[in-house]
Write a structure and sequence with these properties.
With about 400 residues, the protein is α+β, with helices and mostly antiparallel strands. The protein contains four helices and 13 strands. The model is unreliable at about 1-25, about 30 and about 35-55 (pLDDT under 50).
Length: about 400
């Protein structure tokens, strides 16, 4: 056999070998692509899609996936200050009223001192105003009493002189009649007439004294107007002092807040400051979470929301404790529908209308449940439905 013939004979053999190996390579490539695709599918869509592949919940139960959340408390200072000391760190459990940080600021303490001086100055002015008011009020009262007594005396004197005048005029008239009858001497009639004239002058003097007394009473009452003016000034000072005391209390509250304390029993989620930093008013210092008030937020599709009601019994399951159901109840049902959040499943799922539902955990033994943990919530909307 020639070399050409040998080559032609070998070629089909090689082709047969190549033809047999190619299908195996293709099968391996396809298998690898499927594995990679499944891995990417699971990695991208996460546990929510996996949960959809689980068997559906039994009749009377409604299951949905979500994450554990908690009531967050953010602590901020009322005024600018320096961070002097830190007493707690992230992840640390804290008790109510526990000291978390110590702040300080000399400018704020100076504002407290200035406010205290203002209160003291107004207090002294108020004491002086009260003293002047009391003295003026006593003087005005005494003057009115004296003027009133003089007025009464003048009125009584006028009544007496008028009575004497009337009697003297009657005596003069009788004396004139008797003189005409020559029963008495003309001198007696003259004396009676002169007495009537004198009594008339006395009445005039009494009337003038009465007018003067009335003026004295009116003048004394002007003192009461001065008393009212002083009382208004005193009241204004009292209001100023009250405002100054309120400002002092506010400034003192800023200093009291230099001791940052926990308002709840919980755990420190974040600490955003370091010792030696200067923080402004409203700057977050710590965020705390109450581990005894955790809940799972889920989204229930619109067709199923009619099954959910406040107070319904529920159970929460987490991957860290498989098979263990934590007791819970439905604590909130949104009254408005919304589109499924972007972090839920596929885009087709996100365009569906859902209702946000919060399932509050009844207990958190030993703080094993923490915010951010993925969880499955199962709501028993039929009271007699068995738990899965």
């Amino acid at each position: 056999m020639t070399s050409r013939e040998e080559g032609n004979a070998a070629a089909p053999a090689a082709e047969r070998v190549g033809t047999g190996s190619r299908p195996r390579v293709r099968r391996w490539l396809v298998a690898g692509a499927i594995v990679i695709g499944v891995a990417l599918f699971a990695a991208l869509l996460g546990p929510r899609v996996v949960s959809r592949l689980r068997p559906p919940a039994p009749a009377g139960l409604l299951a949905a996936s979500g994450r554990i959340e908690g009531r967050i408390t953010t602590l901020t200072p009322k005024s600018s200050a320096w961070v002097v000391r830190l007493h707690a760190d992230e992840g640390q459990p804290v008790r109510q009223a526990q000291l978390l940080a110590t702040l300080d600021d000399e400018a704020q303490r100076e504002r407290v001192r200035a406010a205290q001086e203002q209160v003291n100055a107004l207090a002294q002015k108020l004491v002086a105003a009260n003293s002047q008011l009391g003295m003026t009020e006593r003087q005005a009262t005494l003057q009115i009493e004296q003027a009133t007594a003089t007025l009464r005396e003048a009125e009584a004197r006028l009544r007496r002189t008028r009575a004497s005048l009337e009697q003297a005029e009657r005596d003069a008239q009788r004396a004139a009649v008797l003189v005409a009858k020559e029963l008495i001497a003309p001198q007696e009639a003259e004396h009676a007439r002169l007495k009537a004239e004198i009594e008339g002058h006395s009445v005039n003097e009494a009337e003038e004294a009465l007018v003067s007394s009335q003026k004295q009473v009116a003048l004394a009452r002007v003192g009461l107007q001065q008393v009212e003016t002083l009382r208004a000034e005193r009241d204004a000072l009292a209001r100023q002092r009250a405002q100054a005391e309120a400002q002092l209390a506010e400034q003192r509250s800023h200093v009291a807040d230099f001791s940052v304390r926990s308002p709840i029993d919980g755990r420190v989620l974040t600490r955003t400051v370091e010792r030696g930093e200067r923080v402004e008013a409203g700057t977050p210092l710590f965020t705390l979470v109450d581990l005894d008030r955790l809940y799972v937020k889920i989204y229930v599709p619109e067709p199923s929301i009619g099954k959910v009601a406040l107070g319904q019994e529920a159970r929460v399951y987490v991957d860290a404790y498989p098979g263990r159901g934590f007791p819970a109840r439905v604590s909130r049902v949104s009254q408005e529908a919304e589109f499924t959040p972007k972090n839920v499943e596929t885009r087709e799922e996100r365009v569906k209308l859902v209702f946000a539902v919060e399932v509050a955990l009844g207990e958190n033994p030993d703080g094993v449940l923490k915010p951010g943990m993925p969880a499955d919530a199962v709501i028993r909307w039929q009271p007699d439905a068995p738990w899965r």
